[in-house]
Write a structure and sequence with these properties.
mainly alpha, 1 helix, about 70% helix, about 70 residues, rod-shaped
């Protein structure tokens, strides 16, 4: 979790202050969404790799099975 601290000048009028806070919160939300998307992509890649490994294991096992003395 990334936390970003910004200092806001004291003399700002209310509208400017609200606008600045709004922009900062929007930017923070965008960063969080990007992080979540990256995490989801990493999870999908890991799942695909696991599925690929399982597939490889099954095909190897099927090919090797007739030769291991069970038939």
């Amino acid at each position: 979790m990334l936390l970003e601290i910004k200092l806001i000048p004291k003399g700002l009028d209310k509208m400017k202050r609200q606008g600045l806070l709004y922009r900062l919160s929007q930017r923070f939300r965008q960063q969080q969404q990007q992080q979540q998307q990256q995490q989801q992509q990493q999870q999908q890649q890991q799942q695909q790799q696991q599925q690929q490994q399982q597939r490889d294991f099954e095909t190897v096992w099927v090919r090797a099975w007739p030769f291991n003395g069970l038939l």
